[in-house]
Amino acid sequence: MKSWLTTTDHKRIALLYLGTMTLFFTLGGLLATVIRVELATAASDLVTAETYNRLFTLHGVIMVFFFLIPSIPTFLGNYLLPLMLGAPDLAFPRLNLASWYVFVAGGLLTLTAMIAGGLDTGWTFYTPYSTTFSDSHVVLAVLGVFLAGLSSVFTGINFIVTTHRLRAPGLTWMRLPLFVWSLYATSLILVLATPVLAMTLLLVAIERGLQIGIFDPEVGGSPLLFQHFFWFYSHPAVYIMILPGMGVISELIPCFSRNRPFGYEFVAASSLAIAVFGFLVWGHHMFVAGQSYFASVVFSFLSFAVAVPSGVKVFSWLGTMHRGSVWLTTPMIYALGFVALFTIGGGTGLALAMLAVDVHLHDTYFVVAHFHTIMVGGMLMAYLGGLHFWWPKISGRLYSERWGRIAAYILLIGFLLTFLPQFLLGTQGLPRRTASYPPEYQFLQGLSSAGATILAVGYVLPGIYLLASLVRGRPAGDNPWGATGLEWQTTSPPPPHNFAAPPVVTDDPYDYPRAPQPTAIGAGHV
Amino acid sequence: MSEAVREPFADLPHQRDAVALGMWAFLGQEVLFFGVLFVFYTSLRLRHPDLFAAFAPRLDWRLATAMTVALLLSSFTMALAVRFAFTRARVKLLLSLLATLALGAAFLAMKGWEYAHHFARGETPFVDLADELGPGPGLPTFFGLYFVLTGFHALHVLGGLVALAWLGFAAWRTPAMDLRGSPVMAVGLYWHFVDIVWLFLFPALYLAARLT
Asked: Using CB atoms, which residue from A91, A194, A225 is nearest to B18?
């Protein structure tokens, strides 16, 4: 126990993060369950409207700040970045451990706020409600999120320095795995956007705690200023969540298509382009908030521009599968699900970026459905795909491929049933964040709640068979998928300093025509 | 703490290089952190220039000039400290760290005196809820801005002093310590950054009324 709590091994810290985030994900999922049960009927009969506000607020805060943002970077990134670079550890191992402690402290503060009576501002903490009117535990919650942000900054700095300074001999930038490129782009956003949220939340806490007018119009402050600050972070945060997911997919699809990634340089550059464009689009959250028309037009145009590098990635994935030999394993099912759902989520994002359309769709279920399609349909599919892909490397065991495929299909069906009806609800004008609704929306809301139960089964199943594989799974061997990449050249799980001898890279990544045969097939396992 | 090469670095230059990059990345995030405050300043000044005309003259620009001099001198002694760490001149290193510490502490002392002075004159950031005319933009709004901006800066100075004290203590207790590596350089970068923030705060707040 003590050796785990004082470890500086990036692999162990990654597993500490995995455990912590799984707890937060479960908590956030339980909150979502209560929300969906409440919404199964038109009246607010299970919880009061006040409780409902607290439920969706905590669901959002926990899922965004304590699961989606840290999930892939701090778990898969922490585990894999040094392995993929051929390094013994991250550049600053103690900073890495500190980031976990700060993260846990932030989580505990937020949980304290929840137990003490909750938070009802929505995950967006909009002023002046959060600073003046809300009687819930805003200060505790924003300090919790502040600490989670600090932990993100530590991780981002660590990843940037590691990528620059600890690449194995011969591992040039154009030989980096695409997952590393996406982590690097993500780290840039983590370091350059998170401080804006951090300071903004501190200002909210100061204004609320000390009665200082910063965002309060009564004393000369500006609530719109808060929205600018908040979205200056929180829109790039969407790319913090989705970019690492895209990186995972760019690893899975070449491996299970046995093909080189189509347009490697363009995919690598598109990660950076998304990171840069992501900083310039925050105003599309404020089309109806009172910013100038000129600003709205510019933000609308720039939001469309993000679709270009995103499209580059989608075409790369399709081009990689084209003429590849596609092998439909569990991780590949998740990857295909990601490509389809990300395309739906991205396309509906463009609809919302259109000025006139947004006036109708703003603050409706269409927005809820759009970002859940990107976050749950995209990011979570990528997270689970990556978890299944690297699980044999991390645990040294093969899980049940049969149950893996069943769970992946259940998740896909559950997802579509939960969130496609919400697009329709939104176009029909149902506003979000209400506990009750007019009875004509009953059918689609019921469908969505039914889908959520299927989704829940899809989340519980991997928890069972992955844990079971630790006891009953066959040994995975070093490279069960026949994948390229330095992480597959060491043992499963890797030894404390990752490699018996420091690796030297002499070739491009993704040399799939000449990659080793998958041993998972040879064992008759798949 | 002796300055050995730490995992996962191969040698001292490699480690120094990585720590420098890490500190620059950290300072990058600090720019954005303070950037929020300067945008807050700009927003308030554009919307309520009258507040600056009315209340900025109450700030003591002579005292602030003395504080600026203290910080600029401390940056000079800090640069010397980095140099002496590299040439392994231990006594000179200790002296220059001590001088930096003293100048930084002098800055904070003046800042504290200034805060006490403002509070004594009722120039506080707290909105008077009992005011019959209702709150409205006024003295507390301007001093809210002033205390928030200078307060976050003062906290950063305080953090720098802690780091300097730690460096000085380590160098004093372990005469053989090799400080050619990263810590003095990293603290030096941070210290210069905190000084630069003040160089923006000084004209933005204390000279605001004089420039308009």
From this structure: A91
